[in-house]
Amino acid sequence: MKAIVLNEAGNLDNLTLEERPMPQPERQEILIRVKATALNYRDLEIAHGHYHTAFRLPLVPLSDGVGEVIAIGEDVTRFKIGDRVCSTFWQRWTGGSFRMAEPSYQRGGPLDGLLSEYAILDEQAAVFAPRNLSDIEASTLPCAAVTAWQALVTEGHIRAGETVLVQGTGGVSLFALQFARASGARVIVTSSSDEKLERAKSLGAFGGINYRRTPEWSAAVLDMTDGRGVDHVIEVGGPQSFEQSLKAASRRGQINVIGYLGGSEGNINPLDIFRKQVEVRGIPVGSRESFEAMNRAIEALDLKPVIDRVFDWTDVANSMRYFAAESRFGKVVLQHVG
Fold first, then answer.
1. Which residues contact 148 (CB under 8 A, 6 or more apart)?
2. For 313-325, how does the pLDDT look when each residue is reduced to its tens digit (9 = 90+)?
3. Which of 57, 64, 173, 312 lies 20 to 30 Å (CA to CA) from residue 275?
4. Pick the CATH number of 146-282 from 3.40.50.2300, 3.40.50.720, 1.10.10.10, 1.25.40.10
């Protein structure tokens, strides 16, 4: 079978198409024919060698994907041949708190990812793809969608009438917008692009703030919420934006720390957290239990992921260059044809 392999970090041209032996499922494993995969910021950082953890190479990249089960090993009970499944990011976090997650079992690093024609999955590390989604749409779920769901629903217990602030218009933020609206919450979006803000409003956001024109955007958030602040923040900017998130949060609000697109350097005064009694938590994607609950909601509400652009799966270097340009609105997908 063919697979894309990262042989050396630091250069996207080091992603090469290679021939590998056809894998065979062992006990409690399934073999899938990969139909589509999707990019996350993590994948780009691993390829460039900037990720906070260095993984052993060579590595097949990408954690997100969907495929059709074409063979099963002994004692497999959760799936049958012909089923359409998504891989989970945390291969051994089936449920419960993050204490149950094992760092050495993350798909796309340190475990090989899904950027190949076929892949082996433990049957406990897969979920049924939502029946209302295409392969391209379902491929986007394992990281970005589960992260947004974990933040707002599993951990955040979002309620109707609350207000959510999402930073930017990447995958996590747009999924958070959709889940928040489906829960009856209001959403404010920040972006450097007026065009993207208008597109976010077309998805249901009631307010948008251009943070380039308004660097102290927390004041605008307070104006939009009559001084109360927001109940939930999807914090993807990192230390540079965290100060504004704190100022924008309501008393007893929640800040979900997910990314660091604005850089990893900065100062945070813990007294600011204390004064508002804000709850700050890191969101390391989520468990299979969260994934399955999210998929039930996606089917029930017929929610559709926002897809920006689709590339052929072998054109991964160009897809990552496009992803890095940050002009996208939503997810970038790699389609496996054939």
1. 172, 173, 175, 176, 179, 234
2. 999 999 999 999 8
3. 173
4. 3.40.50.720
Lowest average pLDDT, out of 111-125, 139-153, 264-278, goes to 264-278
Burial class (CB in 10 A: 0-12, 13-18, 19+), 102: exposed
CB 165 within 8 A of CB 233: yes
Domain with CATH 3.90.180.10 in the chain: 2-140+305-335
Helix (H, G, I), strand (E, B) or coil at 305: coil
DSSP string, 267-300: ---HHHHHHHT-EEEE-----HHHHHHHHHHHHH
Tally Cβ neighbours within 10 Å of residue 48: 15
Quick one: 51 exposed, middle or buried, by C-beta within 10 A (0-12, 13-18, 19+)?
middle
Q: Which two tokens stand for residue 47?
A: 């390829």
Token digits of residue 167: 């930073």
Q: CATH 3.40.50.720 occupies which residues in the chain?
A: 146-282
More confident residue, 9 or 269: 9
- pLDDT at res. 262: 46
Rounded Cα gap, residues 264 and 45, in angstroms: 13
pLDDT in tens, 172-226: 999 999 999 999 999 999 999 999 999 999 999 999 999 999 999 999 999 999 9
Q: What is the CATH number of domain 2-140+305-335?
A: 3.90.180.10
> How far apart are the C-alpha atoms of 220 and 216, rounded to whole Å?
8
